[in-house]
Structure formats: C-alpha cells, structure tokens
C-alpha cells in the first residue's frame, strides 16, 4: 500500500489507486476543499508535492491549471495514490470562509481520465 505523508498531519497507508482527494480527507483527516465535487473544475483541491509527484496527469487537470494560470500545484481530485508521496495541503476548509468542503467526490476520477 502506498504511504501518503501530509505535512503537519503525519503519514498514512492508503489503498493503491485511491483518489488523492479522498485519501487526504478520509485517511489523513485533512479538511481539503473540493467545491466542484472532484470534477477538475474549481481548483480548490490544490496540493503542492514535496516528494513523489506522479509523472502522469489527466487532460482535465492540465487544462484547468493552464486556464487558471496555476503552476507548481496539482489537483488532488485528478491523482491516484499509486506510490509513496509527500504533499502539502494548501487548499483547506479551515480559514476559507466556506460552509463545507463541497460535495463528496466519486471514488473514480471524474471526468473519466485521459492520461497525458
């Protein structure tokens, strides 16, 4: 099982193939945002990789990051936990002013991934 380390929260074993956004919320108990429900539209689930950044990316993630002019961050809703990784959760409910993190993301990456 891959090991997910979240700065300030600790290290956790997560099931291989689990969406990072769900691993952050369910396994690491991080109050990560996902305002669009994990559909690669809002960029509220942003994370910074410290180590173990996956080389592959979905077309949806690449498109939305480019459209918003974001670099140096990844969308946790578009990443599967396939290897050990260390991340910094930079988009959290705490301090956001939002009433909740957003709809619970589906267990499968949405939209259906086209890997680059």
Defining traits:
15% helix, 116 residues, 5 strands, alpha+beta, five-stranded mixed beta sheet, 2 helices
Please sum up the structure shown.
By secondary structure, the chain is α+β, with helices and mostly antiparallel strands. The chain has 2 helices and 5 strands; from the N terminus they run E-E-H-E-H-E-E.
Shape verdict = globular
Largest sheet: 5 strands, mixed
Mean pLDDT: 97
Please give the order of strands in the largest beta sheet. Answer: 2-1-5-3-4
Radius of gyration: 13 Å
Distance between the termini: 24 Å
Tally of strands: 5
| Total of helices | 2
Order of helices and strands: EEHEHEE
What quaternary form is this? single chain
Helix content: 10-25%
Description:
The chain is of the alpha+beta class and 116 residues long. The protein is built from 2 helices and 5 strands, in the order ββαβαββ. A 5-stranded mixed β-sheet has the order 2-1-5-3-4, covered by helices on one side. A hairpin with a 3-residue loop joins strand 1 and strand 2. It is globular. The mean pLDDT is 97.
Write the layout of secondary structure elements.
Blueprint: E1 3-6, E2 10-13, H1 20-27, E3 46-51, H2 59-67, E4 74-75, E5 85-89
């Amino acid at each position: 099982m891959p090991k997910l380390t979240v700065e300030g929260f600790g290290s956790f074993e997560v099931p291989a193939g689990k969406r990072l956004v769900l691993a952050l919320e369910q396994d690491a108990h991080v109050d990560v945002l996902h305002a669009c429900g994990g559909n690669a539209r809002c960029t509220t689930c942003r994370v910074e990789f410290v180590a173990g950044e996956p080389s592959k990316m979905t077309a949806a993630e690449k498109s939305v990051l480019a459209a918003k002019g974001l670099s140096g961050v990844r969308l946790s809703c578009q990443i599967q936990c396939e290897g050990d990784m260390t991340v910094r959760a930079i988009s959290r409910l705490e301090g956001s002013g939002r009433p909740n993190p957003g709809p619970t993301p589906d267990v499968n990456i949405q939209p259906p991934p086209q890997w680059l």
